[in-house]
Amino acid sequence: MKLKKFSLAAILTASILLCGCSNSSQTEASKTEATPFAVHGALSVNGADLVDSNGEKFQLYGMSTHGIAWFPDYVNYDTFEYLKNDWNTNCIRLAMYTHETGGYCSGGDKEQLKTLVKNGVDYATQLGMYVIVDWHVLNEKNPLTYKDEAAAFFEEMSSLYADYDNVIYEICNEPNSTSWDDIYTYANEIIPIIRNNDSNAVIIVGTPTWSQDINNALDKPLEYDNLLYALHFYAATHTDWLRQRMESCITSGLPVIVSEFGICDASGNGNVDIEQADKWKELIEKYNISYMCWNLSNKDESSSIITADCTKLYGWTDEELSTEGKWISKWFKSE
Ligand code: IDC
């Protein structure tokens, strides 16, 4: 259900209810204004659906940052506020690479990266937005590679945010050349660490082949509730066959989130395919699937939503947006 469609009475009731019971460290603004979190509260997973605190189907949608180590400037209150108020988004994803240059497990400044994550969570919380903390597994391929670091990171984050119902944990962005069994083993170590601190947290689990093989999760689901399985697509590369897989897994009862996608090719660059992108949009809306767009930066590549010569952190004009930026902002605003 969309924020805009709520009556004022429902918004006020939701705000009052949440005022009475939500965590005192969440700001007054997020509790008393008709923010996404004030209206929808703690999310959970019911069958294949993500639902809000009223049990209504709920869709998260918004931008994913680029790697926060490389583009830290976009992790700021004004940018998030603009994305919420002007682009009508309800969620932000904080992508923290683990293996790439400057990554959390490959020489990056751990304290600085954690500060960026914490700042990002604080800004989203003050604004009443949902926020995804993304452990951005990519070129290490197997999430078991940095399992111990992941365990320590999620122990710290989930104990800090145990009472923050707007925080969602994504434990491995895109395993690749890795079996579902390895991801399963990893998830069975990390999920209990998070749940020990925050028993109801919604957790996103990546799937094999850069989060395309959600069918593996359907065949052998993890034995926890409140999980979403990640399907990622890049519209110029991934077409009908992956949409068919997504639809058949959803109709078979698998809870799916598109926690990352772009409308160019899988390199994050190259041509943008609007025709395929529109088909993905139609399928996502048909099933109310949550969707987070890659990426919030002005890097000179097609998947960046801001043009390379624009250094504004918010308030972009259409001319300052890339083709993907224009396409996605239109979709968000139509929600
Ligand atoms: C890409 C970035 C690019 C960066 C590269 C690092 O767009 O600037 O140099 O990562 O390896 C994914 C990943 C995401 C990728 C993106 C595009 O989750 O990190 O970002 N992509 O390749 N999966 C499929 C595509």
According to DSSP, the number of beta strands is: 11
Largest sheet: 8 strands, parallel, barrel
Regions with pLDDT < 50 over 5+ consecutive residues? 1-25
Strand order of the largest sheet: 3-4-5-6-7-8-10-11
H/E element sequence: HHHEEEHEHEHEHEHHEEHEHEH
Bound molecules: ligand IDC
SS summary, helix count: 12
The general outline is: globular
Task: Give the class from helix and strand content and strand pairing.
Answer: alpha/beta
Radius of gyration: 18 Å
Roughly what fraction of the amino acids lie in strands? 15-25%
Give the rounded overall mean pLDDT. 93
Q: Give the distance, in angstroms, between the N- and C-terminal Cα atoms.
A: 10 Å
**Proportion in helices:** 25-40%
Overall description:
The protein has 335 residues and is of the alpha/beta class. 39% of the residues lie in helices and 16% in strands. The chain has twelve helices and eleven strands. The chain has helices spanning 8-21, 28-32, 36-40, 77-85, 110-126, 147-160, 180-197, 208-211, 214-219, 240-251, 274-286, 323-334; strands at residues 44-46, 49-51, 61-67, 91-97, 130-136, 167-170, 203-205, 227-230, 233-234, 256-262, 291-296. The strands form two sheets. The chain has an eight-stranded parallel β-barrel with strand order 3-4-5-6-7-8-10-11, surrounded by six helices. The chain has a two-stranded antiparallel ribbon with strand order 1-2. Strand 1 and strand 2 form a beta hairpin. Helix 6 (147-160) runs parallel beside helix 7. The longest helix has 18 residues, at 180-197. 47% of the residues are buried. Residues 1-25 have low confidence and may be disordered. The structure holds ligand IDC. Ligand IDC is lined by residues 100, 138-139, 173-174, 210, 232, 234, 260, 266-268, 294-295, 299, 301, 303. Residues 100, 138-139, 173-174, 210, 232, 234, 260, 266-268, 294-295, 299, 301, 303 line the site of ligand IDC.
